[in-house]
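Researcher: Please translate sequence to structure tokens.
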Amino acid sequence: MSGIITALVQAVRAWHAPEYQQFRHNVVETTLMVPNTFTEEAVEFAIDQQMGEVTEAALSAWIGQRKVKERCSVGVVNAGNVPLVGLQDLLAVLVCGHSYVGVLSSKSPYLLPAFVKILLDQGADINAKFVDRDEMWGEVDAVIATGSNEAIAQVKVLAGRQGLTPEKCLFRGNRYGAAILNGFESESDLDGLALDVLLHEGMGCRNVALIIAPEGLEPDSCLKHFAEMRGVFPAHPSTPGRLSMQQAYLAATNQPHAYGDGLEFLLSKGAPEVQVPGHVRWVEYRNPDEIVSVVEALRDEIQCIVAQENLREQLPDSWNVGSFGSTQMPALDWQPDGLDTIGFLCSL
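Model: Translation complete:
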């Protein structure tokens, strides 16, 4: 495993090397030209953040002492709502020594192939290619798929037709993040919350779509930090249009809500119901028991939870609550939907 780990780390470093800066610029520019909700600032952030997680120590700790039963060909159907969202699966397949057969999202067709090109440029001994989804099925022994619940339902049917048994399949569907406030959040906490909510325009399974707050606490401080964050990470041009009908409906029905200049974000008070991406719901609680009730009722839909340090100590350990600002910066070894990707790949 040490050879592939070394190659992966070298490829990551190349993203920052002078000789690859024009290549990186071109990849980002072409990525921004396809129909998606990416911005240049968000793409560059995602590249730097995710590449920053890929170190020799992190890769070695991730696989640990686990051994692969038998090398095989793994098909990976990638989501595309967040830049480089499929990098973890690519790394996992390669570090386990399997062959990677990737299916790219039309929303992000260039970033992962660019990383593979750099790997090959560095002389990595890997088997990795990208194909159309229909082409994938005839040549894979297992499949990992991430996407909407509807898309995953289709992939499950196709996997069954190809004779792939459940133990050869790892599927991940719709999820979102939740933030829990207690009213004692620091300025730094609220900066982090703004990042959790706004960075990728409400897209992705880790985006905070629900803010659970004490009854009577007003969102003014949060809104201030949201507006400031938009100065760092401007909204995608499509965001105001996506939120305009939502805002008009809230106004027409007299539902409490607030929004940023130019509809760069939208927040409404109400029941714990997830809205369209970019529209975050503010949910009030009267006591800690209500926090537990709200979260447990939605537990199968919630990917991650963040809260202030003192509050985290009062919440169930099983929730694995993180700090503000962490949802868009997952560690290399995080487990989407609570599923251990390396464990799955070693079991094949």
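Researcher: Any highlights?
Model: The chain has a mean pLDDT of 95.
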